[in-house]
Specification:
There is one protein chain. This protein is of the alpha/beta class and 442 residues long. 51% of the residues lie in helices and 12% in strands. The strands form 5 sheets. A 5-stranded mixed beta sheet has the order 7-8-9-11-13. A 3-stranded antiparallel beta sheet has the order 2-4-5, with helices on one face. A hairpin with a 3-residue loop joins strand 7 and strand 8. It is globular, with a radius of gyration of 24 Å.
Amino acid sequence: MIYKTIFRIFLVLNLGLFSAFAADYESPPSIPFDTVFPDVAIKGEHYSVEPSVPTDGFLTRAIIKSEFGDFIALGPGMLEIQLHEIDALAKLQTFEASDEFQRGAKESAQQKMSSLKQIYDKPKEAAAGISKGVSRFFKRSYRATKTGVQTVNDVIHDKTPGSIEGAGAKLPGSAQSQALPDSESKYKKAAKASGSTAVNILGFDDSRRKLAKRLGVDPYTTNPVLDEKLDEVTWSIFAGDFGIDLATSLIPGSIVITTSGLVTNWVWDTPPGDLRVKIEQSLLGLGVSQEDIDRLLRHRAYPLSYQAALTVSMEAMGTVDGHEDIMPLALSVVTVDQARFVVNTLRMLQRYHETVQPLKEFGVQGTVFAATENDTLVVAAPVDYVSWTEMLDRFSANDRFSSKPRELHLAGTMTQAARSHLTERGWELHESSTLLKRQSTQ
């Protein structure tokens, strides 16, 4: 009897403690727009943003209304990128309405489009024939044909290539996430998936990347409206009576490039086949397995620009041990926003490695972290607004972090409750970190 009484007292005390602790968790709030984005106008010529910005415990979710449709900006830097893409759509709309464009785009693009249909009808035969005809593009034909045939078949049979099960599916960005653009015809998607070799023979892909560079946008954008418009305008230019250089010179306005570091001249100026070969060679040099590289190159959540950015960061930290531990997490994401979270985490760690102190080793505990030479653990989080939630509670109390000095670098900020609990647990906090810097060039 006495044991039952002791057990009941123990149960009540522990349930009470649990309830009190659980009650301490916060419901992620909605925040006034000007509090989260003080340097961004809530209304512009072509857009307006909802005045209240929801959060999910880590990321803000800004809802944008525009004449081109509604868009969601999820995570650090994405509002500025989305607004820049809306501005690019407005420039393309003005360009299409110009007399110069109307005169130059008289000839239909249908004839050149139809020549790509063979890739959809017979992807393996087309990929083999293409690689022989443009061997100068690849080291190349092997990578183009291999990735191309794999991905063409994935596209045609509606498979989701590349992904594996793992912790990446739980990273921030799992809800309200946009998928990659999926509005184009199957044979056109197949042409792109094949490494763009067929499109490059016709010059379309080079023209599309030049147009994207002129606008300062990602040629592999995940914005489906901009993706379709880039295709539409490029085909009109390509089939018309004037070249891409003349056409892009007619696009109005000065271009300020805002890419959040995910796009560089390397992505704009390099044919996708060459870019894939470079990614493969770089990752092989870091000890990443061929199987994981193939998965990355086929992963639907990683546009080619993200694959390149991930590779650049990993290569820049080539002396750090543990690269092989990163790929299972990276390959297990299920959304574009989660893929961007992984890439931006690596970009933040890269900047720490280059500007604060060298990193020694990577680790994975829900996300990628790293250890310095003096065994300080560094967690870099590309998040906007952190609340004290059960997920953060469990992460911050993990045994892997409890016995060593530890730093948390946030791209954004956090609530007072989150700040207080993390400080009590010995975390050194760095809010509004400069480790994730946007790139903005003329």
